[in-house]
Design a protein that fits this description.
By secondary structure, the chain is mainly β. A hairpin with a 6-residue loop joins strand 2 (34-45) and strand 3 (52-63). The protein is elongated. It has a three-stranded antiparallel β-sheet with strand order 1-3-2, covered by helices on one side. It has one helix and three strands.
């Protein structure tokens, strides 16, 4: 196993409400590896659209190594 620290940027569409935000973040992080920990460090309104916010996430992920 290999631990990786990543800064992950994710678009938060208005259709995903705050109650479902945790699930939305974890589902997107799991595409990159097994999630150990994560934290939202910044949220900004997108300059392109008022319906999307940009979230910056710091995360520690496990990447399985092949023998």
């Amino acid at each position: 196993m290999k631990l990786r620290k990543v800064d992950f940027y994710l678009d938060w569409p208005v259709s995903t409400n705050i109650i479902n935000l945790r699930r939305y973040i974890i589902e997107n992080l799991m595409k990159e590896g097994i999630v150990i920990r994560w934290a939202i460090v910044d949220i900004k309104a997108s300059g392109d659209s008022s319906h999307i916010k940009n979230i910056k996430i710091n995360a520690v992920l496990v990447s399985p190594t092949k023998p």
